[in-house]
Specification:
The protein is an alpha+beta fold. Helix content is 40%, strand content 18%. The relative contact order is 0.12.
Length: 227
């Protein structure tokens, strides 16, 4: 996902509106009329690129949003938390984030709460919401000097991020996985457990066959074995 402002310096106003017209965002319901197309300007580029981004995400359902800027964390750490709750129900996402010890989970949990409140203001059912999308973007990085030995210096970067959270109501066609509190074992541990269970089952079958083939009841001397 690319923020509409990410390429504002490379697209002119007329070219942006032409691209929006090709994408079908101009002239439709909710879009701008073709005769109102401005020739140039920063606002025209911003509005046209936002139309293209919204059209590309095929948002057919009304959504509520919440965002925060300049969060003191890196994109890599933040994305690890966001992957847990993408395409999950809001209540399950909030429960999952409340059990996370990471600092980034606090920011995402607060934003989901805010988006849930905004959805209730818009008339949506707050008990039947889905985390439709979580977008993160890189903000300005602070640079500080790191003093080292022998008169040398290094550079310390302090990363900041932007976060956008979008929620919407759950539809019958949605497919999402229910989040459980039980932590999944790593793949290599699961493979070892499966190998042990297969070996245990094969051993049980071989022992059972041996016991069935073995004659435990020897005939008694003089007894009638014809019965």
């Amino acid at each position: 996902w690319m923020h509409p402002m990410g390429v504002r310096g490379f697209v002119s106003g007329r070219a942006a509106w032409q691209a929006a017209d090709d994408a079908g965002a101009v002239g439709e319901e909710g879009g701008a009329a073709a005769e109102d197309m401005p020739v140039s300007g920063r606002w025209a580029r911003r509005r046209a690129l936002k139309m293209i981004a919204d059209k590309a995400q095929h948002h057919d359902f009304p959504r509520a949003t919440a965002n925060v800027r300049n969060v003191k964390t890196s994109m890599k750490k933040l994305n690890l938390v966001c992957r847990l709750v993408r395409r999950a129900q809001v209540d399950a996402a909030l429960l999952q984030l409340s059990l996370q010890p990471k600092k980034s989970a606090r920011f995402v949990r607060k934003l989901i709460h805010e988006a849930k409140f905004n959805a209730a203001v818009k008339g949506m059912d707050p008990e039947n919401l889905l985390v439709d999308e979580i977008c993160i973007g890189r903000a300005k990085y602070l640079k500080r000097m790191d003093i080292k030995a022998r008169g040398k210096t290094g550079l310390i970067t302090k990363p900041y991020c932007h976060i956008w959270v979008f929620v919407r109501e759950v539809q019958p066609s949605d497919e999402f996985s229910f989040h459980t509190l039980r932590r999944k074992r790593p793949h290599w541990k699961r493979r070892i457990a499966e190998t042990k269970s297969i070996a245990r089952r094969q051993y049980g079958e071989s022992v059972g066959k041996e016991l069935r083939d073995r004659s435990w009841h020897k005939p008694v001397m003089g007894a009638d074995t014809s019965v």
